[in-house]
Here is the input.
Amino acid sequence: MTISLVARDAATGAFGMVISSSSPAVASRCLHLRARVGAVASQNVTNPALGPGLLDALEGGAGPADALAAVLADEPYPAYRQVTVVDAAGDVGVHSGANALGVFGSAVGDAAVAAGNLLAGPEVVQAMLDGYASSDAGMFEGRLLDGLRGALAAGGEAGPLRSAGLAVVEDVPWPVTDLRVDDADDPVGELARLLDLWLPQKAAYRTRALDPREAPSYGVPGDL
Here is the structure.
């Protein structure tokens, strides 16, 4: 039902995640980021509470493996959960329960981990990681999207995708990018369109929050 990639950008320390699913509104339940702390994907038969719990554990000083062990120890159905995490050191953790749906698996790279379930084939998660790692997109968001495109080119999910999301946190407490397609015939294509719309305006919205005196004047097209 879901394919995802969590990653830390070594150049900036930003955390990001891209995700897509045959279920609606996948990002609202499965995507969890915290600036300077980490990124978590909680998917499969999703328990959204696992994401904040893991981020709290990371912020408290635990590494990904210990954080996963602690959070899953309090989870009554760990065999049904698939969880991935990357922390501020670029270390990663993965849990895929034995009752994950269909063909499932994960692939670990440099400060990045891809995972999925109900996949068209086991090669999909490695293709997602490779698409991210080999991307020549200039911005972190573009590389994350290229990871998702790589997964789709390798077959993606066993069923049609209906939703997608992409988010990034940097050095401020809020997501500097947070794009979601909750239901569409081509959610990845729509996500790409939204990203093309967003990225030229991203820096201006950050500036507005930190010092509105430095922001472009109101009334400029696209400047809300």
User: Anything to note?
Assistant: The helical segments are 26-30, 50-59, 64-73, 123-133, 140-153, 187-210. The mean pLDDT is 94.
